[in-house]
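Thread: Modeling a multi-component assembly for a lab meeting

Hi all, long-time lurker, first post. My supervisor asked me to bring a structural picture of a complex we are working on to next week's group meeting, and I have zero experience with this. I have the sequence lines for every component (738 residues in total). Could someone generate the structure of the whole assembly? Inputs are pasted exactly as I received them:
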Amino acid sequence: MKSAPLEPSKPEPGISLRADAWRRLRKSRLALVCLALVAVYAAMALYGEGVYYWFQYQDRTPPYQLQNLSVRYQAPNLLSAHPLGTDGLGRDVLQRLVQGTRIAFRVGLATSMIAIPIGVLLGCLAGYFGGKTDDVIVWIYSTFASIPGLLFILAIAMVVGRGLMGVYLGIGLTTWVGLCRLVRAEVMKHRTRPYVLAARALGMGPFRIIFNHILPNIFHVVIVTFTLRFPASIGTEVFMSFLGIGVQGEPSWGTMISSARLRLWQGIWWEMTFVTLAIFGIVLAFNLLGDALRDALDPRLRTSES
Amino acid sequence: MSRYLWRRILQTIPTVFGVVLITFVLFNIVGGSPAGLILGKNVTPKAFEEFDEQRGFNKPLLFGSWTKTRALEDADFRNGPGAFRNVRGAVWTNGVLTLPPGRYPLPLAFALKPSSDWKLTMEGRVAPGTSVSIFPMIGKISDGFSNDWKKFELIFQSLEKAPEIEVAGGVLELKGVQLRRKTAHFFDSQFVFYLRQLVRFDFGISSSLNQPVAQLLKAGIWPSLALTVPIFVIELILSLVLSLVCAFFRNRFPDRLLVFISVALMSINYLVWIVAGQYWLAFKWGWFPVWGFESWRYLMLPVLIGVISGLGVNVRFYRTIMLDEMYRDYVRTAFAKGVSRSGVLFKHVLKNAMIPVVTNVVIAIPFLYTGSLLLESFFGIPGLGYLGVNAINSRDVDVVRAIVLIGSMLFVVTNLITDILYARLDPRVRFE
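Re: Modeling a multi-component assembly
Sure thing. I ran the full set together rather than chain by chain. Output:
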């Protein structure tokens, strides 16, 4: 923020933080490729969502559940009806892959929707008010942080019950800690900045200062955390579904790996391969995009943590 | 120093308490008694009650004098006669249970524990001149009844004989019935039960394996450590070396390549490593045993997979630490006075970078204990990870809770030790 891009009084019209970040991001070709890849995945997820609701609305068996034993174990053939082949029950691998994308996006978004508000709110309160509030919030997050992560997620999912809700809550309720810590540290830094002091001198309330003034200035932390958490959540979902604690009765990447694993031993390689590639693509894209975003939004933060 | 020490030790108390609280909220308040899921449907309520009794689930959550019993589920006659459908003489119509004069045994699922106090709460009304009492117990409470709908209570001590509701002189109409047992004392609760268990280091009994959890943990820890310690050590050395290579060739081809490989490694799902490794390396090419835990050879493949899957994250992390040091003044000075590149790197940078590295290493230690959930269950290594996954699949609350608790405690303790060591090494820490 050294260049003070938000100052409106400059003779030359200043460039906003967002525009500046976008300009930086555009310079990196890799980041753009990743962004495009994420967009492709998002489109797939949206299409999957459409298919899902359309067939639910029509009360018909969706194509990804359609079993046809006469075409089981078809090898991938781009020109056939099943470009990526079929699985052991004759279901189309491509359609199931798209549904897996849908689940992955749902998990990525839902967990963020749980974790980000908690993390941001608690972090802002702790950082801005300090004192007792800070003590309590630090106590809460250090408690959460000391519980072994994956086991905690699985335990929450176990208690909530099998299914997507367990995945959302398990991941969402445990991953806000890192964000909370980062936001708290940033807010503490901003608390004594002149613009905050000025806002306070003007008689603004603490919440208005936090949410209207400080939060926009630290929002890059949230964005970067979101892009890096997204693939991590997807990975956890795959893991949980694989173990049978996650998604039930719907094709998710985890359940696909779980069933493809057994068929791999019979030489049915395609389901496994395509799922692997799908996961690899999105996780890689998000990871690289996260790094690029971090560099673009805040050059001071280098790729410091995983 | 001793002041800092005490302060730091005292600081761990709230965290430990917090962990206990979270596990309690998770397993007792949100989760509740897992009896139904574990014992199944074809079990008598008595078995449920015994299961709950053993695990303290038949007590109130935090405090209270009265607690529910499985002998008589709360009956709400607005929805149906419930357990009272089998009471001879009782008539249920339109959301009201009518009891003409006579004696009606409570439809208990099993005999009440003798010589404990019970409270029967009924919502009902009577015609004037009707008396209601509990037989063969003392105390008529017909005073509590009136022509209007009202809640009234009967407190009695259970005897060998099943209690009966005695109605005389008129008709008793009921809307609901609840039976409560009096607790031993006001704080005879699940929470206190749990705390007392913890103080005694009693982690309960596994419901799926029917063994004390402590015994299972003891048996599982060595296989877990046999897997995680080699992974940890090899990964640490390898990633430190690679990160130094990165720092040495900063922003040149080898560094870029390594960073790219790291990100790529990070992006491959853990499951894929395992499945592919097990299929090709063990099954197809026969380099390693596929499954089991008989000799050190069985550990080779899981260790290899563990190292590879974690390498990306670690290399990136340590590279950042190394590069952070590279920008420091002392490095510039060292270069300025003509120290060679490798001299700076190994003598100056590595030494100073050790502090964050050590932090990272110490933080990872508690996770060695919990083992690797996936690797162990895939390769059949009977460690704590295997135990944990199985426990979660069979909803074995006691086992999951014990592993979570011990893992957290280890984390707290190692954190404490790191901080104390820091304070010893670096006096500035104490005054922060």
